[in-house]
Amino acid sequence: MHDLMIPFGPAHPALPEPVYLKLFLEGEEIQDVDFSVGYNHKGIEKSLEEMDYIKSIFMAGRVCGICSSAHSTCYTQTVEKLLNIEIPNRARLIRTSIFELERLHSHLLWLGMFGHEMGFDTLFMLSFREREYVLDSLELITGKRVVHDINTIGGVRRDVSQETMSKVLKNLDILKDKVEHLQNLVEKDPIIKKRTVGIGKLDKKDVERLCLVGPVARASGIPYDIRKTDRYLAYDDLGFKIVVENDGDNFARTLVRIKEMLESIRLVKLAIKSIKPGIIKNKVVMNFPVDEAISRVEAPRGELIYYVKSNGSNKPARVKIRTPTYANILCLNKILVGHTLADVPVSLESLDPCLCCTDRLTVVRNGKEEIIKLEDLHGHH
Amino acid sequence: MKLPKELKNIGKFYKQGKNEAWFILPYENFKDVIKNIIDFGINRISSISGYDNGKEIEVIYHFVKDNFLLNLKVLVPKSLNKIDTLTDLLPATFLLEKELSEMLGIKIIGHPKPGKLFLSEDWYGKPPLRKG
């Protein structure tokens, strides 16, 4: 028996999104952790089955607000695999730029939140200020700051002008200095080190056993990155370099994300510079075979995988999404047990949890078997 | 990476793609086959998909080794409506199996903590992703 059970969440000042942790304590030390999710359940997988392939790309982009383009790119990539089509080189480079810009905004948002959890609000302010350069660039290219909707089957929906490209390159030059400043700040600050070094340790074996993904795996010395293994989009041509750290603690996870930001800046600059004139979308015959396909991308939080089954109609028969936080949340026990209650927000944030992604699937109203149809959500019955 | 020779006869091969292979495994001894595959070194599971095709529930285990995806389909007859757990071999399937169970209404035999994942505990009615 444990001394005490402290509930953490579902609504907690340290959590921007709802998750419920049961923390079993003896004194200040955590002995065991239990968690429950599902407070953010939106019914996306079911609603994807009710839309045609073009509309469902927009729905896939709304699984999550932070990694919107990761979801829509992965979904589009899977549907393109079903149809067995390629996309033009220009579209490939535009998709890669948006994808990496999104990673930059996600990691900067995370760094801010991470600082905030430690009580280091200056880092939060700085990080969110620098994030504006990325959001401005995304707005210049796609017209939107957060949910970009740039993908379509066979290419992208919007072209990039020469003027936009030079503005984005200028923004990235400024951002590079700012991120280097943040890196310097994080690496040298004694308080950040005290709160993170040696806390929430995950060794290689745990990562392999629990099949963890993304920066969490790479901070424990596992070079697992879909950009490297699958060589999708333009990553192979751009010479992507993988970032790996070996300590596996909260500090290592911080370093991986910061170094990834610098790599992302390099990739976007190179991608934009290598964009050549050409078409942005191939003509597509929407003739879906009875088939199934699977595809994955490296979202800001790790491996994102989509399975799409087609029954020959213009709507997918089944879409299954496995998001990175869904895989990573299993290690909560490993990173929290043995540490104190005060370390919970920092360690939890070090996973960069995205519960919007984790909770998807079917909508249920008042616990009854009624399932909300898409038409109801649109308001015309 | 290509499909290793040793794995060519694990089940009924039905589809090949670039860096991926798809098999249908026999329902009776699929767990033994998966154990062999794990022992062979393909020990990372990325996802489990489920689909109701009318007669059966298709359960697909998506294994990963570097850039190679090994997709193993098991057809669960609706009359039986149950499947063995893999949590003893792969702890990473803990949540995936719970989700499969609540969304498609299959019983997972031997799951260490059965129960709802996303749906509320007092939820009743048809499993949400069952067709018809």
What would you say about this model in short?
Chain A is α+β, with helices and mostly antiparallel strands and 381 residues long.
Beta strand % of chain A = 5-15%
* Percent of residues in helices of chain A: 40-55%
Tell me how many strands of chain B there are.
7
Following the backbone from N to C, one meets helices and strands of chain B in this order, namely EEHEEEEHE
Radius of gyration of chain A, taken over Cα atoms and rounded to an integer in Å: 21 Å
CATH H level, superfamily name of chain A: Cytochrome-c3 Hydrogenase, chain B
Order of helices and strands of chain A: EEEHHHHHEEHHHHHHHEEEHHHHH
How is this fold's topology laid out?
The complex is a heterodimer of chains A (381) and B (132).
Chain A (H helix, E strand, L loop, with lengths): L3 E5 L11 E7 L2 E8 L7 H6 L3 H8 L7 H16 L5 H29 L3 H22 L8 E2 L2 E2 L5 H27 L1 H7 L7 H7 L3 H5 L7 H4 L5 H4 L11 H24 L16 E10 L2 E10 L4 E7 L1 H5 L3 H5 L7 H7 L4 H4 L15 H5 L3
Antiparallel strand pairs in A: 1-2, 2-3, 4-5, 6-7, 7-8
Helix pairs in contact in A: 2-3, 3-4, 4-5, 4-12, 4-15, 5-6, 6-12
Chain B lengths: L11 E6 L2 E6 L4 H11 L3 E9 L3 E10 L2 E10 L4 E3 L9 H11 L2 E3 L23
Explained architecture:
The complex is a heterodimer of chains A (381) and B (132). With 381 residues, chain A is of the alpha+beta class. Chain A has one domain: Cytochrome-c3 Hydrogenase, chain B (Orthogonal Bundle), CATH 1.10.645.10. Chain A is 49% helix and 13% strand. Chain A is built from 17 helices and eight strands. In chain A, strands 1-2-3 form a three-stranded antiparallel beta sheet. A three-stranded antiparallel beta sheet of chain A has the order 6-7-8. The longest helix of chain A is centred in the first third of the chain and has 29 residues. Chain A starts with a strand and ends with a helix. About 1% of the residues of chain A have low confidence. Chain B has two helices and seven strands, in the order E-E-H-E-E-E-E-H-E. Chain B has a domain of 79 residues: 2-Layer Sandwich (Beta Polymerase, domain 2), CATH 3.30.460. Chain B is 17% helix and 36% strand. Chain B has 132 residues and is α/β, with parallel strands linked by helices. The N and C termini of chain B lie far apart (40 Å). In chain B, the strands form two sheets. Chain B has a five-stranded mixed beta sheet with strand order 1-2-5-4-3, with helices on one face. In chain B, strands 6-7 form a two-stranded parallel sheet. The interface between A and B is large, with 38 and 38 residues.
